[in-house]
Specification:
The protein is α/β, with parallel strands linked by helices and 226 residues long. Helix content is 20%, strand content 28%. It has a 7-stranded mixed β-sheet, with helices on one face. Strands 7-8-11-12-13-14 form a 6-stranded mixed β-sheet.
């Protein structure tokens, strides 16, 4: 299984049978190496309804008949847009044909801004645990630090975790280091940094603060084999 990073919070998982995109913010993402027109995901997972995470979900899902997994309110909204969506809620898990997905808490906001200067509420933000091919991956979504991350790690041994480090909107490097220790993940990769001026961070400084061998910076387009 190959897991690659593509700028901001975009993660691609390529298993033996499925290609999964998490938070496919491609169009308008100045850091990504992906071209939205060239992506053919079987599954899309969206952690919450902000535009820099929902991204190209609707267009990609319609063009590829992708299954979209998200919280119930966001999945309902996507269903109204003609997308094949599976709704879940925090704490719930579901066995799909490619593996198991479980939503975890994330402390953040949510909502989609419209051209009419309105905000559509799109349910609670979440982190996501994905278990497939004998490995468990954790994408924390956008979140601050919270102590129940220890419960997540205790209940679900994590092989690879993607943690936001940008600050301002999410936890910063110091809090993310503490989060990594609570989670007990074998490998931690920083995400959600440097896309916009308020979230400028040095990912290498972050990984240097982690326990030896745990942190790994993935440059845009780089991957890890699990």
């Amino acid at each position: 299984m190959k897991v690659s990073y593509h700028g901001h919070s975009v993660v691609k998982i390529e298993s033996q049978e499925k290609t999964i995109l998490i938070d496919p913010f491609i169009t308008g993402n100045g850091l990504t190496d992906l071209n939205a027109d060239e992506q053919t995901p079987d599954v899309i997972i969206v952690t919450h309804g902000h535009g820099d995470h929902l991204g190209d979900t609707i267009e990609l899902a319609k063009r590829n008949d992708s299954l979209v997994i998200a919280n119930f309110e966001l999945a309902t909204y996507l269903g109204w847009q003609g997308v094949n969506a599976h709704g879940m809620s925090i704490g719930g898990g579901y066995d799909f044909d490619f593996g198991r997905v479980k939503l975890t808490p994330a402390f953040h906001g949510t909502g989609l801004e419209t051209e009419n200067k309105e905000i559509i509420y799109l349910g609670m933000p979440a982190g996501v645990l994905i278990t497939l091919e004998g490995k468990t991956l954790f994408h924390a979504g956008d979140t601050g630090l919270f102590s129940d991350m220890k419960l997540i790690g205790d209940r679900h041994p994590i092989d690879l975790a993607f943690l936001p480090i940008g600050d301002n909107f999410t936890m910063g490097p110091e809090d993310a280091v503490y989060a990594a220790r609570l989670l007990g993940a074998k490998k931690v990769v920083p995400v959600h940094f440097n896309t916009f001026p308020p979230i400028k961070q040095d990912p290498h400084k972050f990984t240097s603060m982690l326990d030896n061998g745990v942190g790994q910076v993935l440059e845009v387009g780089e991957s890890i084999e699990l």
